[in-house]
Amino acid sequence: MPPFTSHVFVCCNTRDAGHRRGCCNPDGKGSLRECFKAEIKRRGLAPLVRANAAGCLDQCELGPTVVIYPQAVWYGHVTAADVPRIVSETIIGGRVLEDLLIPDEQLNAHKLGK
Q: Running DSSP on this structure, what letter comes out for residue 56?
């Protein structure tokens, strides 16, 4: 089997309702990941594109958070309605969706080094 052309990591970390940092998986069911899996399957991309649940990606305030490799694109505030567009534009078309993009300077990992 060839390697994946794209690997989607969907934060599925849960927190108590009202947590000050927010929660990427408020229903506790991984619904956003399931939306990605269904869209990938619907388009016949399943052999080459993988959607996995991720633990905390430390971007809680910007969640739900999705990271797509190999592009290393970080998207924040992703909803189920965004999934078809992400698959079409980023995974298939290789284009970054500026309205969902978390700029490098906003990623928490960069803030820790300052």
A: -
* Domain segments of the chain as ranges: 6-112
**Domain 6-112, what architecture?**
3-Layer(aba) Sandwich (3.40)
* Mean pLDDT of each 10-residue bin along the chain, 114 residues long: 84 76 68 95 95 89 92 95 97 97 79 44
Cα(37)–Cα(53) distance, rounded to whole angstroms? 10
Q: Are 62 and 106 in contact (CB under 8 A)?
A: yes
**For the chain, the helix, strand and coil percentages under 3-state DSSP, each to the nearest 5:** 30, 20, 50
Q: Residue with structure tokens 């998207």?
A: 75
pTM greater than the 0.85 cutoff: yes
The one-letter code for the residue type at 71 is: Q
